[in-house]
Each structure stands twice: as C-alpha cells, then as structure tokens.
Amino acid sequence: MGFFTYTMFSSSNSILTHTFEITRTHLYPSQKNSILQNPTPTNFGFHKLHFRPLLVATKVEETEKIEIVEEERPRFRWVEIGPEITDPQKQAISQLPPKMTKRCKALMKQIICFSPEKTSLPLLLAAWVKIMKPRRNDWLSVLKELRRLNHPMLFEVAELALLEESFEANVRDYTKIIHGYAKQNRLQDAEDILLAMKRRGFACDQVTLTALIHMYSKAGNLKLAEDTFEEMKLLGVALDKRSYGSMIMAYVRAGMLDQGENLLQEMEVQEIYAGREVYKALLRAYSMIGDSEGAQRVFDAIQFAGIIPDVKLCGLLINAYVVAGHSHKACVAFENLRRVGFEPSDKCVALILAAYEKESKLNKALDFLIDLERDGIVVGEEASDVLVAWFRRLGVVEEVELVLKEYASKQVNCQEPSL
C-alpha cells in the first residue's frame, strides 16, 4: 500500500489539505498504437530516452479532506461607555467641547477610557472609521482635543491617522508630528516620520526642513543642522526668518557666535530680520562671556531691525560691559536706558554696583545711589545684597547700618506735615 499526500497553500487565509489513498497497483501492458509498446529511440542530441510500462492503479479510493482554517482576526466591539468609569474619566468626558460632533465625541470617550489590556488603538481607530465614516475635519478635531488635553496617545493617534484615506494626509501633517517629536527631543521618532513621509511620495519643503534644523539644534547636533540648512539652499527652498533663526540658534548653542552673527548680516542684505528671541539669545551669549564689542554689535542690529530694546536687552548690554571690566561704558548704557524713559530694574542697579566694586570705586557707588534716591528709584533686594557683601568685605557693615538708620529717620521727619 502506498500513500501520497499533497498540501496546497493558497494566498488566502485558508489552508486546503488533500489526501489521496492508493490501495493496489499493477503493471498493465500498453495499447498497440502506443509509443510505449515498441519504443523507438529518439535522439535529442544528448542521450536516448526509453520509457517503462505505465504504473496505474486498479482501484483508487480518493478521499478529499478539506479543512478550512480561518485566521482569527481580533475584532473591536464598539460598546458605549457606561457609568462604571472612573471619576477622572467622567470629568474628562464632561469637558469635551459642546460643539464637537457626535462621531468625534464617541471616539474621544473611547480614547479617554482606553485600556490596552482589552484592545489595541489600531483596532479602535479602524472600527471608528468603519462605523462612523469620519472626514478630515473629524480627525483634526480629535487631534486638536488630544493636544489640548496633552494626552499621551496624541502622537500614536496622529501616526495612525496618516495611514487612513479619510484623513487625506498632506506634507504639513507630517511636519507637525516631526515638530512635536522635536519638542520632546525624540529624534529617532521624528526621523522615522520623515522617512515614512519620503516613502509615501511627499517632498520636504521649507517648513519641514526648518523643523529639522530646530530639532537638531536643540539636540546639540550642529553637523546635522548644518547639513539640513545646506540642503535647503541646494533645493532652492526659500529661506525665511524662521529658517535663518533656527540655524542661528544652532550656532549660539554650539558657542559659534561669529557664525551666527554672519547669518544675521546675510539676512540684513536680503532685508530679512530675525525674531526678538534670536537677537536676545545671541546678545546674551556675548554678554555672558564679556564680549562687549560683540554685544554692542548685536544691540545695534536689534535697533536696525526695528526692534525697540527693553530693560532686559539693555541689562544684557550692561552686563557685557561689567564682565569686560568697563564700568564707565556700563554706566553710559545705564544712563541711556533711563534717558529713553525706562525705569532701571534692580538687576541693572546691582550690575552697576558690582562694576564699581570691581574697581573699588566706593565714592562713585555712593554718588550713584544718591542719584537714584533723588529720582525716586528704590534699591531692591539684589542690589542691597551686593552692597552688604561689599561693605562686609570692607568691615564697615555696622557703620553703614547706623548711617542708613539715621538717614531713614531724617526721611520720616521730612515727610511729617508741619503744624
């Protein structure tokens, strides 16, 4: 008895198994007109072929067994959220926007009460798409609400939405996700989205590349930031103040202030001006290292760009002169601040006192304080701390305290109304 089993795998999810049983075999003579009776040699150019008598079966019992094994696909059963949910979940659901459509609220409730032990997010969204037939506006409404709630599943929902036809994904949707990952310093996730975007036929534009520069800049990867910036130039992508600003910030974080300032000058030639925060970052970097000339150049560029300096920007310029040991120029900058109508901050006052302390100019410091008092400017906590520390080193703390008490009593007497 011989057995022959044939198993066939189809491209579907079903498996068909055929079993044939052959019970008895005999050798049968060939028919007269058969080529097998008197085989004639046939030359194919290599060797002669001869055929043996045919092996056939007298009784074939064919038993066909068909087993259909359906792949068990997990299904999501859409069940309305009941009252057994937790109080925080109830509160979150109650705060959903009143104008949100019912289909969006239905999904938001499921996400708020989502449990990974019961189902998966892809199945949930697939069921929502099949049942509710959402449109792009519905997707955007859900993502906006998840962003407002700072929900941990925001990016996962956004990535899955990119794959849905009803979402009608465009390049800006990918850019937003990349920018979101960049804010959280999730470089690998951002690069994965960029790769997926390119595979799906979307080309990088100025906004996407700027987001990448910003991401690499925050991560301290100057090389990738520079490469991306050069890619923008090679592609002929228009550079705006955001593109330049992101690259300038990359240079500032890398301590390459000259390169950042060169880009500022390149922008000025094209009549493009960076934002206030970019100028402030560059000015602060120069200020902290005591490069008063660089700080002054940036301060002038700020005014050239049409940005009115405030007290904080003036304070950074003053600090640059103080750190550089130029107390006179620091005082000039302080007076310029007052001349334009700004009231100096306690930080600025403390900086001038620190500059006088460095040069041991106690008399000038006292004259400075008298001028401030005359103009009604009160010395604050930070400036007072500088004075106390200075006087303590001079060993005249008690004497100063006595003088200040007498001065305070005289001020009170002067303010008393005469009878």
Automatic annotation (TrEMBL):
Keyword terms, alphabetized: Repeat
A Pfam cross-reference name: PPR_long
Origin: domain of life: Eukaryota
Domain PROP1-like PPR: 183-297
InterPro entries for this protein: PPR_rpt, PROP1-like_PPR_dom, TPR-like_helical_dom_sf
Residue windows of the PPR repeats: 170-204, 205-239, 240-274, 275-309, 310-344
Entry annotated with the keyword Repeat: yes
PANTHER family reported for this sequence: OS07G0661900 PROTEIN
Protein name: Pentatricopeptide repeat-containing protein
